[in-house]
Write a structure and sequence with these properties.
By secondary structure, the chain is of the alpha+beta class. It folds into two domains: about 5-230, no CATH class; about 240-345, 3-Layer(bba) Sandwich (Glucose Oxidase, domain 1). The protein is built from 14 helices and 13 strands. The strands form two sheets. An eight-stranded mixed beta sheet has the order 6-13-12-8-9-10-11-7. A five-stranded antiparallel beta sheet has the order 1-3-2-4-5. Helix 1 (about 15-30) crosses helix 6 (about 100-125) and helix 6 (about 100-125) runs antiparallel to helix 7.
């Protein structure tokens, strides 16, 4: 694959079976919703967290398409609640079935891929801070509806994988280390027990690379080499301030706490949260945060939505916050201007 610049779409808890369905959707189902599907995309999965990457140029094309076809974008966003209801009904019915057929499961996958495409629409449109704020607020509400539905759908999927595991003699944990292509292939051949042989090396960091016509799994040194080539570490340099998109205004001064994963983090003192991006499990921590600063995201990302609800100064999309700001650094956050100034290094 030729080198290209990659955009980090999102970082969230996930397991390979679910992550691979998302990647499949991104190369097969995005064109109708966002103007272009991705020619390639990949997920780096480590310790139950998946970071999803897509070609930066194609993300920019999607934003242009969504803005040019604004009325269609509005209709699609308005239709999210109906799509959420349809998917929930389908997955609930599926979870109650004892003998799920492949054709019935594929019908669910078709609807699930349609549902997944809406996350791209609601995320990418938020990269343009010049859009009407009332419209962006509606997008944010639709995005929260989507996220809540997605979490519920994944709970029912957990029951389905549990059922499959019991029926075919494989633990649900090992089953979820398969990709959707592998899962369907083994199921059709009635050889799901062979999953144990296919998941070797997936208990640590590995990569699912998805292109239009193929899927590649990278583990060990191959995964390391891929990341060095495609996600080279950029030097942040000796900077005194960073800039991003203002998501919710206000001013805060305090010590940085850099948190990559919310699980297990427990803090008693007030702090300035610095992270790649927030997810729903960050919410309890945010009650102690005086401000939020993220690498990624637009005005409809989770951090932006939650900061407005909790009225916490927030700056998103800085790109380099986690590289520049470290635990204990004393900073000033001016979320009206989208600027973080470093007062003193620890």
């Amino acid at each position: 694959m030729t080198y290209m610049k990659w955009h980090l779409n999102v970082k969230r808890s996930a397991y390979p079976l679910d992550a691979s369905i998302i990647l499949e959707s991104d190369v097969k189902s995005l064109k109708e919703a966002a103007g272009t599907s991705y020619s390639a995309c990949f997920a780096v999965i480590e310790k139950g967290i998946a970071a999803y990457y897509a070609p930066e140029i194609e993300v920019k094309r999607q934003l242009l398409y969504l803005k040019r076809n604004f009325k269609a974008t509005q209709r699609r966003i308005e239709g999210i609640p109906i799509l959420c209801q349809k998917l929930l009904k389908e997955v609930k019915e599926l979870s109650r079935m004892r003998n799920i057929t492949i054709s019935r499961f594929k019908n669910f996958l078709f609807l699930y891929r349609q549902f997944i495409t809406t996350r791209i629409v609601t995320r990418v449109i938020g990269y343009d801070e010049h859009l009407d704020h009332d419209f962006l607020s509606e997008v944010a509400k639709a995005r929260l509806n989507f996220k809540e539905t997605w979490e519920e759908v994944r709970k029912y999927l957990g029951k389905i994988w549990q059922s499959f595991g019991g029926e075919h003699g494989i633990s649900p944990e090992n089953l979820k280390l398969l990709t959707i292509i592998e899962f369907l292939s083994l199921w059709q051949k009635k050889k799901l027990k062979l999953a144990q042989e296919m998941i070797i090396g997936r208990d640590s960091r590995f990569i699912i690379l998805r292109q239009t016509d193929k899927e590649i799994i990278l583990t060990g040194k191959k995964a390391d080499d891929f990341l060095k080539k495609n996600l080279p570490q950029e030097e942040a340099g000796n900077v005194n301030f960073i800039q991003g998109r203002p998501a919710f205004g206000g001013y805060a001064k305090g010590r940085v706490k850099a948190i990559d994963i919310a699980a297990g983090a427990s803090l008693r003192k007030r702090f300035i949260l610095v992270t790649s991006m927030t997810t729903p499990d960050f919410v309890p921590l945010l009650k102690m945060a005086d401000a939020i600063v993220t690498d990624e995201g637009g005005l409809t990302c989770h951090a932006a939505i939650i900061s407005r609800e909790l009225k916490i100064p927030c700056i998103v999309g800085t790109k380099i916050a986690t590289k520049v700001l470290h635990d204990g650094d004393l900073v000033e956050v001016d979320a009206d201007k989208g600027v973080v100034k470093i007062i003193k290094r620890k």
